[in-house]
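A common beginner's mistake is to predict each chain separately and then try to dock the pieces by hand. The better habit, illustrated here, is to supply every component at once so that their relative placement is modeled jointly.
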Amino acid sequence: MRDWGFVKKLRRFNPLILSCVVSLSIVGTLFIYSACSIRENPVLQVLHLRHIEVALAGLAALTFISFLDYRKLLEWHWISYAAGIVMLMLVPLIGESRMGGQRWLFGIQPAELMKLAVILTLAQLFGQRGANHGFKAFLFSGLLVVVPATLILLQPDLGTAMVMASTFIAMLFAANIAPKAVWSCVLAAMLLAGAVLGTVYYAEKAKDLTPEQREQVLKATHLRPHQIRRLQVFLFPDKDLHGSGYNRRQSEIAVGSGGWRGKGYGKGEQYTLGYLPPSVSSNDFIFSVLAEETGFMGTITVLLLFLALLWSGLWVAFKCQDDRGRLICVGVTALVFSHAFINIAMTIGMMPITGLPLPFISYGRTFMVTLMLAFGFVQSVSIHGREPETRF
Amino acid sequence: MESYGQKITVSWWRLALLALIFGVGFFSLASSLHRVQVEEVDRFSHDLRRQSIRRKQEPGARGRIFDRHGVCLAETKPSFCIAINVAELRRPGNWTNTINAVDAEIDRIAKFLDIPRTISHQTVSNHVLRALPMPLLVWRNLSHETVARLAESPVNFAGADIHIQPERVYPYGSLAAHVLGYVRRDRPKPLPGDVVHFYLPEQVGRSGLEAQYNELLTGSSGEKLIQVDSRGYKHDEIQGEKHVAPGHDLQLTLDLKIQRAVERALRGWRGAGVVLDPRNGEVLALASAPSYDLNSFVPILSPSVWKKLSTSPDKPLLNRAVQGRYAPGSTFKPVTAISALMKGYSPDAEYDCTGVFTLAGLHLRCWNTYGHGEISMRKALEQSCNCYFCNLGGIIGYNAIYDQAKKLGLGAATGIDLPNESPGLLPTDEWKQRRLKDKWRTGDTCQLAIGQGMLLTTPLQMAVVTAALANRGTVYRPHLNLADPPVRVRSLDWPTWKIELVRAGMLDVATFGTGRRVQTGGLKIAAKTGTAEVDRGGRRRKNTWVTAFAPYDAPTAAVVMMVEDGESGGLTVAPMVHAVMAAIFGETGSAAETHPDEKQPENEPAPANGTDGEAEARNA
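With all components supplied together, the output reads:
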């Protein structure tokens, strides 16, 4: 009765997702080349080739996973989760530090892989037959998320923790887990964020504070000094244009000076002249390079590609007849959305600066592989998520 | 295991809501991007320019100066410099690393080319910290050989660039130095609009015609936009809105041949010479001696040369022709003569010269100790009899002389297109009361009548007077710019017989009188010599003059030459005027004949005055 012919599977492969993934990776390669070709280090000059390599390897993995039934793979979810946790715990012990954070283990960033592991674990937890959708599930899943998030926050990486939180909330909402508890938590988180921002604002604006008192007030937020500085820059953009506000300011100039049609490929001035530091122009601020060279037309195109990808992901979920499949799609699209939104918003000063890569476009090999694997799962849902047509 | 058909918790509306949230999120991003990229593009583009664009002002090439026949007297030519391109030597980290690297490279190049290092560590440091995108000029005005040695060097000098800079060049060196004037490097007039970050120095005229016609000669500045990177190094250079344009050329009334003859005649003396065209006031030559080499002011005048020039007792920087104030002596007598004729004095009235003139305790000796005897005006002019003219002055009175002298332009600047012209001094009663606290006396008038006393004129003023006598009564404003039309300052209504009488007196001077040494084969020349005794610094000194014009009937040249500490006008200056006349009118076989293309005048000795003096003594 069930006929899983290869051709049948191939027919259910979602072409739009694949073309968006490929297009975004090509865009990434082009602008990594733009940003890196001017660098003096010959290894960095060919960074775009590394990007292509990992994108191709990732595409192979994506295709491979597509043809495996995700439900079978989900049975191994706890292994991926456990492996992720172990790696995250190893990072502070034997990990490498680059660019102000200890995030690397043997050349990979466990935090990125952990995002996928958490999505798969939550999908299995919320979606399995007879799953608890009550407060218990909320507490247990919360524990599953808080443990890796805490480890990541220690690295420190506020952005990744934020992304995990928003993905978690999206999946909680989709699976309708303890709605009251979830909304209370979201409300509490928003209040907390508001309180932190309010405190930072107060510390800056209050006139009757001595420097020592100001120090005390800021200390009460329990944020690290560089995080406080980023929040200050976010609240007061013109405060420290040559220090902590420098990247944000230069990124905004890059995006803003792009205009309608941009300056042309390879003609971006902000990174060429080094105002946009080369250390960030190929990863966290790649969107600024793109925006400067292609203008509003280019940025709108990239936004549309992302939206097409996200909506296709949700379309796959809609077509799927299985909670686990739907939850995988929700998790992956929420992850990509929060990454893209925070990254782009940060380049124009709508969000505080966080070190989050732009999916498929920023240079970052672990994240690229993670995304390819994630969309491999989405394709697998697309193929296996509903009953095969019965042949009469 | 398979789970199809189970009850779905993740309902469609939850998916739809997520899709909506994604859509709204991206829409808000798109609208923000629209605001930043489309609505505020000007603001951010302006910010971008402000941080990465530096305006550089480049002055235009200075115009050239030609003589009346088109021979170039001053031009702007490229000169070779070695510049350091700091960007090539940049070192990471503290700026001191880069500064030291530049310093070391300069020493390396200096050692390789075997030329002395000319800039200090401090200059290098200032350049790196303040003018980073500009080339650092280390050596200027290098020879082709030195530059070639660097260009073909087997050793690689990473930071060294051969740089071309415009420099003023005076092909004839010291020729007409006082007329042409010199230039100095200065900041160009700032361009309008935004702030100018850097500028290349401009050559600004500081004296002579370079200063007088500075506006005309100065090119109009252009702007280049230097794109600098975040460290401040030059990344690219773009043409700005304003293009650089060269200045206008200036063609002079000077005639190189005549100018050279005048200067050659004056060599070895302190003095001045002016040649005017009496028909229109064009200055054919204007020279002051001693002179100086204009090229020594380029590219930068060394302090030692400046000190030498500015403290020399010979005052080489002084343009004696327009700034020197001298008693004209006997060359003023034609003015007295015409004043007397205009006053109605009869030229035939004779005066008995006894060799000394006495008036109220004033004893004036005639140069002829034995006296000239009974003498009329024409003869008095020819013989340059002091007693006759003293007496004449007393008879016609101060006002008559003052009137004519004033009309001839004495006591006022001639208005020549040269800066800092001296007006000389035509003394008046009022002036004497104010300065000397004494009233005007008849003795003063007598002194004035023979061009002595308080009267002071510049050689140029006497040239204007001579030109007016030559053209029978028209005072032209002397000018050096050939493009200027002749300006008639005044027409003196001298009855023909009166002016012709004075001119005839001057013809006699050149024919048989004190100025016969001006004679140039076959040319009819009129002249007047003068030897003014002055009391300078407690020593009695003589300023010796000759004023002359030729040809007598229709004069085309009025020549005035003055030499400080000469023997006498007739002995010292007349041979000089002879040489100049020969150069103008081309006396056959004259030594003064020169070719205009000749670059540097050959080094010939000053005229031997001793022998001439002996000859004069024998003749007397």
